[in-house]
UniProtKB/TrEMBL annotation:
Domain Phage capsid-like C-terminal span(s) in chain numbering: 141-425
Pfam families recorded: Phage_capsid
Taxonomic placement: Bacteria, Pseudomonadati, Pseudomonadota, Alphaproteobacteria, Hyphomicrobiales
The protein's name: Phage major capsid protein
InterPro entries: Phage_capsid (IPR024455), Phage_capsid-like_C (IPR054612)
Cell location: Virion
Organism: Methylobacterium soli
């Protein structure tokens, strides 16, 4: 292994941290950010190899090496965050044009909503809702936004909300979504050509319910901003609510208790995977309280992967937070290859054991008995339910001189296939 001089190492690390933390974008920056991420990971591997070599040689840990490794690890996280932001900005086209409807209602709705947001004039929206025979709207409940804004908000949430991005999704028009699931396989057997066919027991069905809960945000704007005709009201409203909605969803889909919010997959009953039964989520224990095993820590990751049936593994992925991912970055296989690999493209995920990694900050940190790592096919395992209709109520009185926009949407969620998700328990 070739070691750099202290001066070279310090200057290279400083350059890496400066690149990762500037936040100043330039043309072709996504490609540059991807290159910086790859460079950071190479520096991380080299420094960690140096640290491991010192420990294997029974030398005491070098404080400078540990500090350098921590700084590179932080720069690696920053570079990855910057790459994600650039990918999101690139995938965020401006909202343009009215809703393409042959009867012209889309254009009329957009114009009436724009007038309501800017000046508080609701006559146009009332007339449209009367045409549509809609109920439950009006000044007390707010008005429906044009479909273009609703679709754009949902699309942006799919990019920003980590669990929504990998989960299954359904759109409903009622208060909840119901589906029947089989809790046991139907009985079957082999028989000869002329042998009698005894009657078999049918499958046992159970009903799952996913109620849509109310999620709200309240962006504010000055009347001067609203009076500016150059300001795209559609894009402004989508920008303001996307972050608030995605942060609340990110927590609820992981650890929500199901009371006035979706139920997160970590709040369901769990059981050791060897004793798994329908209705519970199986877990694999690491064998060490709040940590990975001291010897061959990566073995438990393989155990977790193969705890999942083959039919689910082909579309599976890992879910963890940034701090646990920092720990797993140091793991190697028996040939000395790092198990964690940076993304190959700007819009791709980092890989672990050949499976994509989703970074969800709502996942718990490593602690005794914590369920800090999930693996599974979340498209089949977790369902996000969106009720159609995004409503906005204009309030120019509560926070003068600002105009508040009480924006609500209804969303639910829960586990729909308990066998599709497995958890790693640090216990």
């Amino acid at each position: 292994m070739t070691l750099h001089s202290p001066i070279e190492t310090k200057s290279a690390l400083a350059a890496l941290e400066n690149k990762a933390g500037t936040g100043r974008e330039a043309p072709g920056e996504a490609k540059a950010a991807l290159a910086e991420l790859a460079t950071a990971f190479e520096a991380f591997k080299e420094t960690n190899d140096t640290r491991m070599a010192a420990l294997e040689g029974r030398l005491s840990g070098d404080v400078l090496t540990e500090e350098k490794l921590a700084r590179i690890d932080a720069a690696l996280d920053t570079a990855r965050t910057r790459l994600d932001r650039l990918s999101l900005d690139r995938a965020r086209p401006p909202l343009g044009g009215p809703e393409p409807r042959r009867d012209g209602i889309g254009a009329e709705h957009k114009a009436a909503f724009d007038l309501y947001v800017r000046a508080g004039e609701s006559a146009g929206l009332k007339r449209l809702e009367a045409k549509a025979l809609s109920a439950g709207s009006g000044p007390d409940g707010g008005y429906l936004v044009p479909p273009t804004i609703e679709r754009e908000v949902l699309r942006r949430l799919s990019l920003l909300s980590p669990i929504r991005a990998i989960a299954g999704q359904r759109t409903i028009s009622g208060g909840q979504y119901k589906r029947a699931v089989s809790t046991g396989a139907p009985q079957a057997g082999w028989v000869a050509e002329t042998a009698p066919r005894p009657q078999t027991d049918g499958p046992v069905l159970s009903e799952l319910k996913f109620p849509a809960m109310e999620l709200y945000a309240m962006p504010a704007a000055t009347q001067t901003l609203l009076d500016d005709a150059v300001v795209d009201i559609d894009a402004w409203l989508a920008d303001e609510v996307e972050t608030a909605f995605s942060e609340q969803e990110g927590v609820a889909f992981v650890s929500g208790d199901g009371v006035s919010r979706p139920k997160g997959f970590l709040t369901y009953d769990t059981v050791a995977n060897a004793a798994w039964v329908p209705g519970k989520i199986g877990f694999v224990a690491t064998g060490a309280a709040g940590a990975f095993p001291a010897q061959n820590p990566a073995d438990v990751l393989y155990d977790l992967v193969y705890a999942l049936r083959a039919g689910y593994r082909q579309n599976a992925g890992f879910v963890m937070n940034r701090r646990l991912q920092s720990t797993i970055r140091k793991f190697k296989d028996q040939d000395g290859n790092y198990l964690w690999q940076p993304p190959l493209a700007a819009d791709r995920a980092a890989m672990l054991l050949g499976f994509p990694v989703t970074e969800a900050e709502a996942m718990p940190d490593a602690a005794a008995g914590s369920l800090s790592l999930a693996f599974g096919d979340f498209r089949r395992g977790y369902l996000v339910v969106d009720r159609t209709g995004l409503r906005v109520l204009r309030d120019p009185y509560s926070a003068k001189p600002y105009v508040l926009f009480y924006t609500t949407k209804r969303v639910g969620g829960g586990v729909q296939d308990h066998e599709a998700i497995k958890l790693l328990k640090l216990a």
